[in-house]
Amino acid sequence: MKKRINGSIRPRPNAEDVQYYDITLELGTDPATGKRKRMYFKVNTTDREEAENELMIKKAEYLQEKLLEPSKETVTRRNLSPATTRDYRQTIERYIEPLFGHMKIQELTRAKVQQVYNSLRKKSNRSDNPLSASTIKHIHRVLKCALNVAVDEGIIKENPVRKIKIGKDICSDHLEVYTVEEIRALEKGELLGLSYSDIDFDKKEVTIQHAWTETETNEPVLKDCKTESSYRKLIVSDHTMELLRRQRTIYLRNRMKYGEDFCNSNRVICKENGEPYRPKSFTRKWAKTLKKYGLRHIKLHGTRHSAISLLLSEGVPIQIAQQRAGHQDPKITLSVYSHVSKDKESLVADMLEDVLFSAVGE
Questions:
Q1: Residue 327 and residue 341: Cα distance in Å, rounded?
Q2: pTM of the model
Q3: Which of 133, 151, 239, 269 has its CA 20 to 30 A from that of 4?
Q4: What is the pLDDT of residues 224-246, one digit of tens each?
Q5: Can you give the C-alpha Rg of the chain in angstroms?
Q6: Half-sphere exposure in the Cβ direction for 23 (13 Å, CA)
Q7: 264 pLDDT above the threshold of 90
Q8: CB < 8 Å & 24+ apart, contacts of 248-257
Q9: Burial degree of 21 (CB within 10 A; 0-12, 13-18, 19+)
């Protein structure tokens, strides 16, 4: 059966003061509800003839099935997979909902999204400061995933943000890390999911197989590592093993002290009563600890950057650093820690000179 479609334009806010036009496509009646089906569009023009031309274009696009019938689903509030991290939820609430949540999915265009991204490079929607390119790329990843779901479910024909490009920061290779001297003053403390059963004290080996995270409802949960490369065994130093033995002694002493009130979590990092820290509260404890001992403040994840940066700067092969970090691909390690490579360019040049020209001088 051939589709039939009617449409109209309407000046806004009124005919005496036209600032733009609304387009309405009449799509007939929904057989399930008996209600009229419509599609609405906004045309940023004060010219009536231009608005009428846009109406004809919209009619043609609908008849050619380039437009889908309206859905009340917006960009946000889609069902998220269980593996989606709490960080994704924060990205949705902080950026995607305020910036795109008022739009119907069908209203999103590549140009509109690009315009929003460009504005964020100048000023964030949450402050007067601009967003970095890496933050915008993360927003883009979450939005793109949501729209991929919309395509899969037939809500839209294609993903409008698929080919959007985001530039680089001028100083994108800068990471907040500790120097070698600062790292030596630190104890390893970010693996909240580490249990004493994960430690082989005889072999000096630590197995990383769990992560202590928070769900979307802020409930802490112990999860298996999300990728195969995240499961790994680490050989640690004698000094680190001594610190772990000392920590286990404190744990056993506290278990005797608290008796039945002790939470036998078997965690390496826990409260005095054995109860595991919530990830958020441990982040606050991290900040207080740095201040207490007069250490420069960086994010807790910055200790991970510091450790891997130190390995690379000391000439550890990229494959070993990759395994230590739990990256699936060495390209990830190289891209994140490219600043180390740049710092070592002069060292490489000197080494080549020694190797290539030493024989010449003999």
A1: 18
A2: 0.45
A3: 151
A4: 766 666 677 888 888 888 999 99
A5: 28
A6: 25
A7: yes
A8: 248/196, 251/196
A9: buried
